[in-house]
Amino acid sequence: MEIMKESEFRRQIKSGLGKCYLFFGDEDYMKSFAVNAAIDAVSPDPTLSFFNVIKLDSFSYSPDALLSAIMPAPMMADKKIIILSGLDFTSMKQSEADALCQTVAALDQYDYNTLIINTAADCFDAGFLPKRPSSMLQKLSEHMTPVAFEKNSPARLSSWVSKHFEHNGVQASPEVCALVVDRCGRDMFNLSSETDKISFYVKGNGKTEVLSADVEAVSVSADEYDAFAFTNAIGARRKDAALNVLIDMKLRRVDPIIIMSEVTKTVCDTVAVRKLASEGLTSREISDILKLHEYKISIILKNDVDLEMCERLLERCRDADLEIKLSRDGYAVLEKFICTI
Q1: Which of 48, 170, 176, 296 is the 20 to 30 Å CA partner of 131?
Q2: Any bridge partners for residue 25, and if so which?
Q3: CB contact set of 94 (below 8 Å; sequence gap of 6+)
């Protein structure tokens, strides 16, 4: 089984994309960057994106929906691109994986498509590469090209920060770039927004060189947020905390549809776990039934989110999800969702 590197995929964008790629690994920022680069290569005319750029997520996806996206020919172009994101392969059943692979096989008949399946870092288990890939990765690799996005080392991130500063029209020494990484963390979404902020601060003060004092003056120390933090804040009606998490996600350019998808999944898991726990089941028994890790179950049971509140929240999630998909400003919908809980 051959696994493509991120750099190899970037070269393939220039030479011509193939039928189907599976993006996996820890570096979600570079996945998003690669997805956008592929979209620009396949459909450079934004006026035709409605026809030639199709996006599916965990809510809109089904094998039939994917096939319906694959079949139509591109509009006034040679190719079209389909982005499928938000699937959780860690809980996917064998029959569901088979159905996905069977649908992907239809790309042979409709060769004007490029399909990218973009998985989040915690939603795909690749196994122990390169010697022991997971059974899921082995199966999927028979029908698509796996592309690994490995977590960047601090040294590579420092180099990336330096280039980002140069792009913004300022300079920074290797020591200052290393300080940015050390202070702001290794999340590239956060690094990107913090580097931009520092750049604009320096240029706004009439300077062209970033100093350590500038980094300390305006950058924010890394704070890792996740769906649990967001959902817990909403469930406990801590609106300020929830809005702070949303601001962080917005700065990292996390897709509002993905945010809502993660929140809904977390709420569903919380409801299911609490109901089973109320019936006297142990964490291990709940884990066997729901196929959730025991550690995740223990976190859910420790949280002070009320079950009745979660059930009401689930209905609100459904309404908000639909509104986000119909809105041009998904973040505004999320803000209203938080403020009206």
Answers
A1: 296
A2: 149
A3: none
H or E element in which residue 125 lies: none
Note the Cα 145 to chain centre separation in Å: 19
Q: Cα separation of 25 and 118, whole Å?
A: 10
Q: Which residues contact 133 (CB under 8 A, 6 or more apart)?
A: 1, 126, 127, 141
Residue among 124, 130, 126, 102 at smallest CA distance from 20: 102
Phi and psi at residue 248, to the nearest 5°: -60, -45
| Residue 320 burial class via C-beta count within 10 angstroms: exposed 0-12, middle 13-18, buried 19 and up | buried
pLDDT digits (tens, 9 = 90+) for 6-59: 999 999 999 999 999 999 998 999 999 999 999 999 999 989 999 999 999 988
The reported pLDDT for the residue numbered 219 is 86
| Residue the block writes with tokens 């089984």 | 1
| 90's tokens | 């860690």
The overall longest dimension of the chain from CA atoms, in Å, is 65
Would you place residue 340 in the very low, low, confident or very high pLDDT band (cuts 50, 70, 90)? confident
Q: What residue has token string 């999320």?
A: 334
On average, the pLDDT of the chain sits at 89
Q: Where are the beta strands (DSSP E) in 134-267?
A: 145-149, 171-172, 209-210
Phi/psi at 5 (5° precision): -85, 160
Residue 11 has a CB neighbour count (10 Å cut-off) of 10
Q: Cα-atom radius of gyration of the chain, to the nearest Å?
A: 22
Q: Calculate what percentage of the chain has a pLDDT beyond 70.
A: 94
Query: Is 112's pLDDT higher than 70?
Result: yes
Contact 165, 209 (CB under 8 A): no
The rounded percent of the chain whose pLDDT value lies above 90 is 56
Q: How far is CA 221 from the centre of its chain?
A: 22
Q: Which two tokens stand for residue 125?
A: 């288990």
Quick one: tokens of 186? 């290794």
